Amino acid sequence: MDTSVRKHHLSRAFCFLVLSVGVLLLGACGAKEGEPTCDRWELVSPEDLSPGGSPGSEGEMVDSLTPTFSWTYPDPSCLPEYYRLRLATSWHALDTSPDEYRLDGWVTEWMPETELLPGTTYLWRVHAGSSWETVGGAIGIFRTGPLCDITSPVVLSTPVPLWPADGSIVEGVNLTLEWDDPTACIPDGHYVVEISERSDFSDALVGRYPEPYLFIARPWVDFDLDECTRYFWRVHFDHAGRPDADDGPTSEVWSFITTTTTGGFCPPELLEGYIPEAEVTVPPSAEGAISGHVWHDECAPPYWSTDTPPPGCVAMPYGGFEANGVLDPGESGIEGVTVRLGTGPCPVVGGRTATTDATGTFSFVSLPAGTFCVSIDALGDGNDLVLIPGNWTFPERWYGPEPIDLELSLGALQILREINFGWDYQFLPAPATPTPSVTQGCWVWNPNLQKNVCTAPCPPNPQPGGACTP
Fold first, then answer.
1. Cis bond upstream, residue 347 (ω within 30)
2. pTM higher than 0.70, yes or no?
3. pLDDT digit string, tens, across residues 299-320
4. Which of 57, 71, 186, 313 stands 20 to 30 A from 24 (CA)?
5. Considering just the CA atoms, what is the radius of gyration of the chain in Å?
6. For residue 140, what is the enclosing H or E element?
């Protein structure tokens, strides 16, 4: 019998035992008895999320602070063992919010026991689960009332920037700016976000959105950000149908730095040692982060024998050459590598995962202070299809088979950057095929040795630079 099936039967037995003594544990008993339970590899994502999860309903207003959350499971042949519902008030907190609820696999509705905050934008997601595996993709976005009274001027609160943290480095040029609006009602209008390379906003790009976040990507905005650039941003609310004097106050000015989207890296002087122009108070929701790159550490030994390491290579004690373990100009990131982050000293098992993007960049956000272990298993997590054959050259030369790992200590609200890993592919890049030399005199090109060799008989016109003596 499959292990996952045995575990499922054990959980059902436990459920029966607990219920027999009159104790009800909501969410502990798996799918409804009599319904087939999906194996973990059969799971599909729940659909038809309400509120705010169907086309055209994003940002809809609910009429209760204890709304009913509902969804459907599209596979009629089986049910998940359980659902995990997560609720948050910002995008970056959605995957780390402590507000997570576990429900039985036959339950497709849920109502919070305590009231949600009024005048707030919420995001929620539900995952279908069996054993340790969960699947979920769709996100619902809704707002709680009340609407602000439009018959009299509303005193709007000052928006509080949330994400990305002030002065942080973001991946690429497409990101989401987030802020909190403490106003206790939902005003009519749009938030206005100004983004500029100048702190005085004399050349600001402007984006508008009704919810307290803005996607910096088309079609949500009609402009593009530049790579490797420091930007300043601020936000205020534009009250519809009101004079400018009734608009909301402007937030503090925060900044961020974009990185590349083409596999290269920004100048170190831009990314290192940056101190924000003004001291600001970081909200508690803006926690620490760890980011870095997995890059192709290149070494192309020549076909012919030599004792001189080619550019980017170092000689090894046992002979041959390997990449030098240095991120040299022109070396690119490796896309599709799964990186793990575990809590506590190395080594760790499990933990969160991130996949490197087209630039080789990975990141873990919303982290508390503590000790963490960043690791990459070249033979596991599907990485063998991306990396093998080859070996690690940085932060140490490592040939496995165990994962390479790096133990880090993260302070409160600290961002650790450039946690990099260098990988030397065994057969990449391919050595350049040498251009055959022109046969001169008794110097004749030998295709097996890939160089000219001296042969007899020797005519009187030897190759320039030395006589040929076979």
1. yes
2. no
3. 887 755 667 788 888 888 877 8
4. 71
5. 30
6. strand 140-144
